[in-house]
Design a protein that fits this description.
The chain is mainly alpha-helical. Helix content is 74%, strand content 1%. The chain starts with a helix and ends with a helix.
Length: 784
């Protein structure tokens, strides 16, 4: 018994030695030496060592061949690795060498492309410059050949088309500087030729008169000869009738024979035809001067000389009338004035109609007023001149509208459509001086701060005032009443607002690549411009001294203009949002036969929701109405949000019901339901403040009830409660439900759509057929 216990104890000690860390076997060995069977334990230990040696040997024998093979393979790999290293080194060297050549080639290519780009740029510049040089060379040739009228045409083409396209080169600047001098030279030369012509006419007028009198004498002789011939023929006809039976001697003497007739004399005279006045005189200087002065632009100095000559002539006539007796009379002077007045008005109408410079027309108007007042002081009637000035007012207004159209376009194109940053009180006062803006809340904010509108608001308002000033300048000194001036200015301003500015705003709203942020800023800007309309009314009243509440006073249409522009911007926002939503929906890629839906919303819908969230964050700057501060969210933001949600809901339903989707599994419907829940979560989060309760969720109510009906398969409730006001699925149309159910009707067993019913395939098909039949009966009943 003791021997068995000893053997068991030794076995335990050996297992402990085998399983214990060598640092902890000291107590175990002490227990062996403390006992009496030390020798027996040593025998067991040696036996255990021999067993382990045998196991090690067996293991080594078992793995020896594999070890030898591994060493052999390793030695082979070392050789191959050495070869590979040599190959890599060699390849690297070749690559470095080839790379140097490639780098050299690439550098040469870069230099070549740089040269090509420079050559292309040079060719492009020369393409624009060569027509200028050719045109200028042509001009020089025409000037040398004294072909001044074609030279003026060439000069006009050079100035208006060629030089602007060439660019700002030094030779272009020199040409531009020479153009006025060339025009002056051509005008002076043509006038000099005309004066030479007039001097020559004066010298040779006696010869011309003599020639003209000779021509008149010849013409009189011809007329007498023709008259005599007609009388002779008439006498012969009478004698023939009187002596009808008597033979006439055709060879007898006749005082009117062909030999002695005046016709021969005329023919003889025609052989030695006397040259006419037009043959003796070269009238080309007159025509050339007329054409040149027609082409040259009118200047105020030319009009001033024209009026001075007329005034000087009639001052002399008036003085002679009042200081002499019998030389001229009042009727003669008045007739002369009426003729001169009609000619002057016709000339002014013709020449002013070609004028496109409002400043020149304004100066011309002032000159005409001075001309009229001067002659009126001498007793000449000038009402027709003032009537003509009123006609010119319409032309002046059209020119102003064209000019301001360009100004408005430039302002809108250069605007950054961002709130104006204000860093100091001085800058704030400067903007307040340009635009009547008052906001107590903003005044309390420290600097720096931002005004709600962008730069185009004060600029447009300043341009409106400048236009009113321009209209007022033309109305001055026309002997009009304050009411007439006020009415004229208001009508012109209304044209500017309703036609010019309105079209420019529509252009800014409808142009391509306009973003939602820009449209939002346009809404804010037009709101503030609308608020400033009553300031424009006061401004006009102040400069015309006509109260704005005067009876029959014309009202400004600025409010309606800016309202229309704001509504157009709002509609553009709604349209752009819907287009963006459609672009995201085009990325939808549903697996309509999926066996099971996912737990997360589709990627395209997550991106769409993120876009809508960031977009509606911009709308927090929209004004609620015309009197609220421009940072308050308003009806526009709410309408845009509701419109986007409704469009998204409608588009999702169309995506589910479209004809290309022939089969829909319950798994696909579950995934679609997850996406709709994501839309509902977005609506519930309130992307735009101001909605009461779950108002925004109503945009998705049709989809929600339809999906609940199918996912819960609650057909018994739907069919039983249909038509009742308290129906759970009140918004589900039977035709819509039938269309979707028929898409699910042919689902295969693999999709396992009706696994929740735990019925065989025949019962599932029968259930669907039953519901389809009931829906068709329901639709037929409603249609009847």
């Amino acid at each position: 018994m003791a021997s068995a216990e000893t053997a068991a104890e030794h076995e335990r000690i050996l297992r402990e030695i085998e399983s214990t860390d060598t640092n902890c076997i000291g107590p175990t060995l002490r227990s062996v030496y403390d006992g009496q069977e030390h020798g027996l334990f040593m025998d067991k230990l040696e036996g255990r060592i021999r067993n382990h040696d045998r196991e090690i040997e067996k293991m080594c024998n078992h793995h020896f061949q594999g070890f030898v093979d591994s060493i052999t393979e390793l030695l082979k790999v070392r050789g191959e690795a050495q070869k590979l290293k040599c190959q890599v080194t060699e390849t690297n060297q070749k690559l470095q060498n080839d790379g140097k050549e490639l780098l050299t080639s690439m550098d040469e290519l870069r230099q070549c492309r740089l040269q090509q780009r420079n050559i292309a740029t040079t060719i492009d510049k020369l393409t624009h410059c060569l027509p200028v040089l050719e045109m200028y060379s042509k001009l020089q040739e025409q000037m040398r050949a004294k072909r001044y009228y074609p030279a003026l045409r060439t000069l006009e083409q050079l100035e208006e088309s060629c030089l602007p396209q060439a660019g700002s080169y030094r030779f272009c600047g020199i040409m531009s500087e020479n153009i006025p001098r060339l025009r002056t030279h051509i005008r002076d030369v043509s006038m000099s030729d005309l004066k030479d012509f007039l001097e020559s006419i004066r010298k040779h007028s006696d010869k011309i008169g003599e020639t003209a009198m000779k021509q008149a004498q010849v013409q009189i002789a011809r007329d007498n000869a023709v008259t005599s011939q007609q009388r002779s023929a008439s006498g012969r006809r009478i004698r023939k009738e009187a002596c009808s039976g008597t033979e006439v001697d055709r060879t007898g003497s006749n005082p009117f024979s062909e030999k002695d007739s005046g016709i021969l004399d005329v023919e003889d005279e025609e052989k030695d035809e006397i040259p006419g006045a037009q043959d003796l005189v070269d009238f080309s200087p007159v025509y050339r001067c007329l054409h040149i002065y027609t082409v040259l632009h009118e200047t105020l100095e030319g009009y001033r000389r024209y009026f001075n000559q007329i005034v000087g002539f009639f001052v002399v006539e008036d003085h002679i009338l009042h200081t002499t007796q019998g030389l001229v009379n009042r009727a003669y002077v008045e007739e002369l004035w009426e003729l001169a007045l009609s000619k002057t008005i016709a000339a002014l109408r013709t020449h002013s109609s070609y004028c496109t410079d409002p400043d020149l027309i304004l100066d011309l108007k002032n000159l005409i007023v001075l001309f009229a007042d001067t002659l009126q002081g001498y007793g000449f009637p000038v009402n027709q001149l003032f009537d003509m000035l009123l006609e010119m007012r319409d032309q002046y207004g059209e020119i102003l509208l064209k000019k301001w159209n360009q100004s408005f376009r430039q302002i809108l194109d250069q605007d950054n459509y961002s709130p104006i940053p204000v860093a100091s009180p001085e800058e704030y006062q400067r903007i307040a001086g340009q635009f009547p803006f008052q906001d107590p809340e903003l005044d309390k904010m420290p600097f720096p701060k931002k005004l709600p509108f962008s730069e185009f608001v004060p600029k447009v308002y300043s341009q409106l005032k400048e236009f009113i000033y321009a209209c007022l300048k033309y109305s001055e000194d026309l002997h009009l009443s304050s009411t007439e001036i006020d009415d004229m200015i208001r009508k012109s301003t209304n044209l500017l607002l309703t036609r010019t500015l309105s079209h420019c705003l529509q252009y800014a709203i409808k142009k391509k690549n306009v973003g939602l942020a820009e449209l939002v800023q346009i809404i804010i800007n037009t709101t503030h411009l609308e608020q400033s309309c009553h300031y424009l009314e006061e401004f006009i009243s102040n400069i015309t001294n006509v109260p704005p509440d005067t009876i029959n006073a014309t009202k400004l249409y600025g409010t309606s203009t800016f309202k229309d522009a704001r509504h157009a911007a709002e509609e553009e926002i709604y349209t752009n949002l819907n287009q963006k939503i459609d672009q995201f929906l085009q990325l939808a890629d549903y697996d309509w036969t999926a066996a099971q839906g996912g737990a997360q919303a589709s990627d395209y819908l997550s991106d769409l929701i993120a876009f809508l969230c960031s977009t509606f964050a911009v709308f927090t700057h929209l004004p609620g109405n015309a009197i609220e501060h421009a940072t308050l969210p308003g009806k526009v933001a709410q309408t845009a949000c509701m419109s986007a949600c409704k469009h998204l809901s409608t588009s999702l339903l169309q995506l589910l019901l479209e004809g290309d989707v022939r089969q829909v599994s319950m798994g696909a419907l579950q995934q679609f339901n997850v996406d709709v829940k994501e839309c509902e979560r977005f609506a519930r989060a309130g992307p735009v403040p101001g909605f009461q309760g779950d108002t925004l969720l109503l945009a998705f109510i049709d989809l929600r009830q339809l999906l609940d009906l199918f996912t819960q398969w609650d057909w018994s409730t739907y069919l039983a409660d249909y038509g009742r006001p308290t129906c759970k699925y009140l918004r589900v149309n039977p035709q819509t439900a039938l269309t979707l159910l028929e898409k699910m009707k042919d689902t295969s067993r693999k999709n396992n759509m009706f696994a929740q019913f735990r019925k065989n395939e025949r019962d599932k098909q029968k259930l669907i057929d039953t519901v389809v039949k009931q829906l068709r009966n329901l639709i037929a009943t409603n249609q009847a």
